[in-house]
Structures are given as structure tokens and as C-alpha cells.
Amino acid sequence: MILLRPRRLRRNEVVRALVREHRVHVEQLVQPLFVAELQQDVGPIAAMPGIARYDLGGAVAQACQLFALGIKSLLLFGIPAQKDDGATSSYDPDGIVARAIGAIKAALPEMLVMADVCCCEYTAHGHCGILDARGAVDNDATVELLSRIAVTYARAGADVIAPSDMMDGRVAAIRAALDGAAATDVAIMSYSAKYASAFYGPFREAAGTAPQFGDRRGYQMDPPNAREALREIALDVAQGADIVMVKPGLPYLDVLRAARERFDVPLAVYNVSGEYAMLHAAIANGWLDGERAIDEILTSFVRAGADIVITYFAAEYAKRHG
Ligand code: PBG
Predict the structure, then answer these.
(1) 203 alpha carbon to ligand 1 midpoint, in Å?
(2) Fewest Cβ atoms nearer than 10 Å: which of 44, 104, 245, 316?
(3) Residue 144 lies in a domain
(4) What Å distances lie between residue 309 and 26, 134, 220, 246, 274, CA to CA?
């Protein structure tokens, strides 16, 4: 019997690159971008080194820098001046996200602008929907509101609408509303399997969206469930989602892999704020080689089956690999 020697193909970088199975391309990455309406909300985010909240002009400048680095897809989040129980500033055509979409598309027509659609940045109570008389999130009333937000963003020039609320039936409703508004070219990237995760902590500081009472377990998914994620994705595909997403990333790589095997639609993963914060904390302490750790993590998403990786590391990765 001859000895089989897999190490032959690991001898140097040329041969390793030749047999490499997966690569992360800058074109697959989406950088989230926070845009604040009030000057007092502009500035760095403590738990997310290198990430900040920008005003309108700052967001456009940031978009230009990202585009120059090869990051040509952005996911926008807004921090509005005003919150109320009806989330009314969310669908205002003069609202901060609508204005940011318009300004970025005016400066960079080729930038693919994705807009997160959810009420939690706009409701005074911080939940992802409208509350009923009992104080519970009213699914169907929320879906109507989400459709309205989606049309506002589409009219402002968004290329992709990304509902992150986890209400039932929202993809079909948003698709119908977009089509009714002649926005048939606007795609839907659905946060299909979004878990009630501890890893959104820094985002809630960044976007000021921590719920004032209770938690999001009544609408976001229970972390131990994987089969249910596939059911959620199947429902979104049936309702017309163009792209489906698993979120967070690292703790749910198994779900990502299962989704890849089951569905043929483009699959996104969201490498969320807490994953970013966790890695940065270790890097700041000198406990990890940051560049290698970041590359390894981004590669894990692509290896698990993601086509699209939404990550706060996008710009950093592009600087080194663009
Ligand atoms: C809004 C929304 C959240 C994230 C994206 N959209 C927060 C949440 O659901 O609490 C999280 C993003 C991140 O943590 O990076 N619903």
C-alpha cells in the first residue's frame, strides 16, 4: 500500500492557492451604514471600533470611499430625529433613510443601495412593529406599515428592500406593494431566518433600538430551531423573496449550510454587530491576529454556502484584498 500524502498539496502558497476550494470576493460583501438625522447622534459606536453613525453628507462621503475600495453594495439603517408609537417617520419621504438613498444614488448611481425595512428604529417602544391594545406586536398592522416603508424607499431609489422584522406574510405584502407602485425592478432580500440573538447588542446601541419592555422572542426565531429556519425560508421563497438570509452568522453556520443544500435562490448571511464586537475585543487585547481571524471568519460563511456576506468588516477586507 502506498502512503497517501495530502500534505503534498500544502507545500507552498502557489500549490495551496491552486487547490483552494473557496475564496471571498470583495463583490460578495455588503457594508452596513448607519445614517443619523440629528447631529447629536453622529459619531463612533463604542462597541464597534471603526464603525460610526454618519450624517447625510458623511454617509455619502463614506459610500464614495467604499465604492472606491470595491464595496458596491450598502445596507442602510436610519437613526431618525423622532420616534412615536406609529413609527411615522419611517415612511416619510423626507425621512433620513429616504434622503440618504436619494443622496447616495445621486452621487453614485452604480452603488447598489439596500435599505433595511423595520419599525424598531422608529417606534418609541423599540419593538419591530405596531402594538395592539394589549401591548403585543400586531402582525398584520405591522405588515401594512412595512409595505408603506418599502414603497417610500423604492421611490427614493433603493435597489433592494430588506425586511428585518420577522412578521408573517411580509414578503408577499411588500412584493405586492412594490409592484403596485411600479417598482417591479426593486428586489427583496428577506431576513428569513432571523434569530432572537444576544449578538445584536452593539447594534441596538448603534441604532438606539433596544425594546423598552419585553424582548423580541415573540417574533424572532428561537435559537435552538433549525428545521423551523428552513420552513421560514421556504415561506419567503414562495412569497417572492429574491434573496434569503440567515442571521446571525457564526452561531448559525449549520443553518446556512442546510439552507444552501435545500434552496437555489441567492443566500445571504449577516455577520452581526456582536460578532464584530467580540472579535475586535480580542484583537484589541492582542489575543488574536486580527487580519487572519477576520479572513478565516469571512471564509467560513462562503464555505458554509453564503453567496452574499453582510459584514462590518467589508471595508477592512476590501482594503487588504481589493
Ligand atoms: C432591526 C435590525 C437589527 C439588526 C438588523 N436589523 C436588530 C434587532 O433585530 O434587534 C441587527 C444587526 C446587527 O446586530 O448587526 N430589526
Answers:
(1) 6
(2) 44
(3) yes
(4) 10, 38, 20, 10, 15
